[in-house]
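Weekly structure sync, notes
Attendees: PL (lead), two postdocs, one rotation student
Agenda item 3: pending single-chain targets
PL asked that the sequence for the first pending target be pasted directly into the notes so everyone works from the same version. It is reproduced below exactly as submitted, 89 residues in total.
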Amino acid sequence: MPLERFQFIGNHSHLAGAEPAEYRQHHRFVLYLVEAEKTSKSVTRRLRKNVQEHNVFRWAGELIAELSDLRVEVPNRGTMKDPVAGHAA
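Predicted structure, written out during the meeting:
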């Protein structure tokens, strides 16, 4: 529930002569705040774990692994043609 839907009631002494609807509204507001805090902590934990796992060392390791699998054909120097002269080097 959006926070704007709740009106601030004040501390518990303001609830002494309150209507049942005000108690319910206060109760929902408190539950909303507790749930919002849990969600915020959960999101923060997930983000921290993600940053720890996906750091520059992991990226560098994956890059090196991919580069080590890369195979490049190197032509035999005797058969390479000189692009300027047009004949074998």
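Discussion points:
- Helices lie at 20-53, 56-69.
- The chain has a mean pLDDT of 77.
Action: rotation student to compare against the earlier draft before next sync.
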